Amino acid sequence: MIHPSAKVGQNVTIKEGVIIGENVTIEDDVYIDYGCIIRDNVYIKKGSFIGAKSILGEYIVDFYKDRINKVNPLVIGENALIRTESVIYGNTVIGDNFQSGHKVTIRENIKIGNNVVVGTLSHIQPKCTIGNYVRMSNNCAIGDGSKINDYVWMFPNVVLANDPTPPSDKFLNVTIDSFAIISASSLILPGVHINEDALVGAGAIVTKDVAKETLVVGAPAKEVCSVRKIKNKFTGESVYPWRYTFKRGMPWKESDYDTWIQSVKFQEK
Amino acid sequence: MIHPSAKVGQNVTIKEGVIIGENVTIEDDVYIDYGCIIRDNVYIKKGSFIGAKSILGEYIVDFYKDRINKVNPLVIGENALIRTESVIYGNTVIGDNFQSGHKVTIRENIKIGNNVVVGTLSHIQPKCTIGNYVRMSNNCAIGDGSKINDYVWMFPNVVLANDPTPPSDKFLNVTIDSFAIISASSLILPGVHINEDALVGAGAIVTKDVAKETLVVGAPAKEVCSVRKIKNKFTGESVYPWRYTFKRGMPWKESDYDTWIQSVKFQEK
Amino acid sequence: MIHPSAKVGQNVTIKEGVIIGENVTIEDDVYIDYGCIIRDNVYIKKGSFIGAKSILGEYIVDFYKDRINKVNPLVIGENALIRTESVIYGNTVIGDNFQSGHKVTIRENIKIGNNVVVGTLSHIQPKCTIGNYVRMSNNCAIGDGSKINDYVWMFPNVVLANDPTPPSDKFLNVTIDSFAIISASSLILPGVHINEDALVGAGAIVTKDVAKETLVVGAPAKEVCSVRKIKNKFTGESVYPWRYTFKRGMPWKESDYDTWIQSVKFQEK
């Protein structure tokens, strides 16, 4: 059931059982797999793949009073790969080359940059800002209003909290600066600021700010050392800041971080 | 595909791809979104909204031997708002004004009171009893037979366990008394009783009973102080017991807890 | 929509809205509930039940470049009971009598033995090997390449990690030996080897190998005692190794472990 107002580009595949609402734009080379629901005012840019049974432009709370869908547009950037049964709300903008696992939930009033990955069953609550090249593994729960800068990594089961005296109406948001790494099953408490290149150890409960390039572990998390002291178990070489030792999927993958950042700076002049 | 035995009230919306089984009652003003499966013997009270692709009256284990659905009724109270892809089993009763996030799982032999909220991806196992005005955030896992009283709050990733010597066949259930608060990512061990107005800190592992109005933190959780000593970070004022400082969505929202409870007691006379 | 190449056995039920791709074999007495997607090259053995809206033979990453499905067969053994909305990838083999909860995700290049149970919302990442009679509760996240031997139990929210210096390209896999028990909300760090009959306490963070028949608890987990010292809270009797005290669903359920293992050894001669 495709609403006649839909604008559908060239070479678009729409499989059986797809519902497409009013004022939807689907650019060229998009593939919408079986049973998706694309609600009103969704814009899907070229080359994107929408996994089976996904729901895009999901109703925000203003729908439920009168069951009339208000205008809450969702934009999905170019070349997205959204896996099955993902739910993405209206009033959200996702950049190019987005990838998701299965069954992710992305709420309203969220801005996601380019080249972001969100793992299976992860859940991003309203009003979050997520930079470019952020990688979030499975089962992460990102509390309302979190601010995650570029090149942040989050591993399975990370929780970002936001209510310092639950239940309350005044939230303190978590901020994570660029290149920081949040290891598996760690919990970041409301209002915590994790600075650039910091590393939060697995299972840590982070109750206060983490300084730049600092490793914290434990519950409550305590400073251990500079991340520069951590060695790779296989090679014995330094690992962090990781931008100098890891390049898979990164914009410096063809050379190295220093060469790439110099070229970026040169282009910016 | 709607079974002819279905009783459907006035002003009911049933979207495309919905399956409705035998002996289903749908009261007035119910909205059933795309692709839901309403199995046999489900009763949906007036004004409820059933999110897309939800499954109500799901088979309990007695179905699988002969693939014949036994009579295991599910009742959904008035004005429910059940978000997409939720699964609710037969032999369960849910009160009025229930709200769920996406992809919740609610098993059989559960009794849920009025005005309860269950967050995205939360999972309530069989034989639980959940009071009125209980608020459960996303990704909570509530073990079999847990007893959660009125006005309890549970934040993301809370786990209530039930097997003291796993694997075994003899469970010890968790009990949480009214107005208690279980903060994010905490784990409550089998048989623990958390008393009224207690506060479990984020990431705590609670191995023994928690006294009334007591804050516990850590792993294993230890008593810190009375909850009355906790101050709001913004205002410096006392926060707990929270019923005196928080009213959003509560029955005392129009006045305050004391005024409301007096009026309730007056009416009860 | 059933592709004409499908081979469908006797007494097969295929409910409304099911999609069946090319080169699919469905043996006798299989039941495929509403809205399932069975992609190409899936083989479902006799007596299996596929829960509503499940997706079998899900695309692996090689699909997305040209949107042509390569040959990545999935085999589901006899008498499976797969609950709703589960996603199982191609290039995976699952043994007989498999049971899953709802919304499980099982990725590619996985080998699962017979009589395995995987709970609701659990997620098994690629290249894992899982033995026979493994029981995994809800919300477990099993990292790439984990090796789980026979009769292992894992309780809710267990995470097996795999990257010792995240982000990296060189993983260290977790190995769990037979009869070990991993309690709720525990986290096993990369490369850890948990030996036979060990018991990991609830909420533990396991940073190094755990010796045979040893109880570890805490974060980081520390040795407490032999599992043989743990008593049942109700009876005061020894509980572990659990194969001598628990038999529900086990191959020795009709007698006891010793009698059964003797008969197995006798048959093997």
TrEMBL record, chains A, B, C:
Domain annotation Mannose-1-phosphate guanyltransferase C-terminal: ranges: 1-93
Residues annotated as signal peptide: none
InterPro entries recorded: GMPPB_C (IPR056729), Hexapep (IPR001451), Trans_hexapeptide_repeat (IPR050179), Trimer_LpxA-like_sf (IPR011004)
Entries under Pfam families matching the protein: GMPPB_C, Hexapep, Hexapep_2
Cited CDD domains: LbH_WxcM_N_like
Protein name: Mannose-1-phosphate guanyltransferase C-terminal domain-containing protein
Species per Swiss-Prot/TrEMBL record: Clostridium carboxidivorans P7
